[in-house]
Amino acid sequence: MKKVRKAVFPVAGLGTRFLPATKAIPKEMLTVVDRPVIDYVVEEAREAGIEHFIFVTGRNKGVIEDHFDVQFELYDTLAQRGKDDVLARMQRMQPIAGQTSFTRQQQPLGLGHAVWCARDIVGHEPFALLLPDMIMQAEPGCLAQMVSLYEKTGGNVVAVQQCDPAEAHKYGIVGRGKAAGPGFEITEMVEKPPRGKAPSNFYLNGRYILQPEIFDILADQKRGAGNEIQLTDSMLTLKDNQSFYAYPFAGRTFDCGSPEGFVEANIAFSLLRDDMKDRIGGTLAGLLAEAEATLKRRSRA
Ligand code: G1P
Predict the structure, then answer these.
(1) Which domain holds residue 152?
(2) Is there a single domain that holds both residue 201 and residue 278?
(3) If you measure from the C-alpha of residue 289 to the centroid of ligand 1, how many angstroms do you get, rounded to a whole number?
(4) Is 1 inside a domain boundary?
(5) pLDDT in tens, 179-211
(6) Predicted confidence (pLDDT) per residue in 211-257, tens digit
(7) Domain match, 213 and 294 both
(8) What is the domain count for the chain?
């Protein structure tokens, strides 16, 4: 079985759910506490043993490439000023030369098309796919957990979580088959099922380990939900010839592509910081008590 060495990050999306914040800044560069969203996802991949980071970008996304570059003048200035802790933190995230690749999705034709744009850089080996809107809290990280399962099963592994059935139409949904190790076999997959038609409430949460045969299927994939080329539709075809396992991820996932999920992620990640937990926790408790008192007063008036 081939090791999963490469990861694809589709970062071409326009971020329309987050305007005007994303008018001039890519949504992947919005900060959760003090790091851009994309940092969390790259860190998760690195922790899972990924050695090559492939970004599928679009127009106005050049700053993502800069973020992962060596900022020589900045590092030098930090070293001269004795800011070793900040420098060490930045260098810990720094990919070494040759570990990153950037390609462009020239038209917004859907997730399936974005993944297909990475086909030559991935080549003929299994790869991880991480959707950067979704950031997770878990130790070990979601992808590392999936790699452990993959090392036993081979094939394709997708992470799933349970959603409110009323929200199932917003996601790719899988049908639950026989139990397989910590996960289960997949009976079907539907992208954005119509309300009331979802085969379960297990949604694809944005983490995948896929075999390279997906690229040939993507090359001919007809448009699906939302008139876009959907990865889920190609995975369904691949499932006819290869095994697919769902891994129910038990940690928390924040959808940073939506303002609510982004605010929640900021709170959740600040509460996991020793230097911030007490202050933020105290402020939140105070704000909640004040808001409740205000709402009560208003309802009496
Ligand atoms: C994409 C996938 C979908 C998945 C979702 C997770 O949809 O197509 O299967 O459930 O990400 O966020 P999008 O959010 O791009 O509409």
Answers:
(1) 6-270
(2) no
(3) 36
(4) no
(5) 988 999 999 999 999 999 999 999 999 999 999
(6) 999 999 999 999 999 999 999 999 999 999 999 999 999 999 999 98
(7) no
(8) 2
Place of tokens 């980071």: 53
CATH number, domain at 146?
3.90.550.10
User: How remote is the CA of residue 130 from the centroid of ligand 1, in Å?
Assistant: 11
Tell me the backbone φ, ψ of residue 260, rounded to 5 degrees: -65, -50
Ligand 1 pocket (Cβ < 6 Å) reads 111, 131, 133-134, 171-172, 191, 203-206, 231-232
Residue 120 class from Cβ within 10 Å (0-12 exposed, 13-18 middle, 19+ buried)? exposed
- Residue 301 — very low, low, confident or very high, per pLDDT cuts 50/70/90? confident
**Ligand 1 binding pocket mutation candidate from 142, 204, 223, 254 (most atoms within 8 A of CB):** 204
CB atoms within 10 A of CB 165: 13
**Does the global pTM surpass 0.90?**
yes
Per the structure block, which two tokens stand in for 47? 């922790």
Q: At what angle do helices 142-153 and 37-47 cross, to 10 degrees?
A: 30
Instruction: Kindly state the tokens that stand for 191.
Output: 């992208």
Instruction: Examine the domain organization and report whether 83 and 143 are in the same domain.
Output: yes
User: Are 259 and 226 members of one domain?
Assistant: yes
Which of 171, 189, 202, 236 has the most ligand 1 atoms within 8 A of CB, as the residue to mutate?
Answer: 171
- Give me ligand 1 centre to Cα 110, in Å: 10
Separation of 241 CA from ligand 1 center, angstroms? 23
278 lies in the same domain as 190: no
Closest residue by CA, ligand 1 atom 7: 171
Which of 12, 1, 275 lies closest to 153, judged by CA?
1
Would you say residue 229 lies in a domain? yes
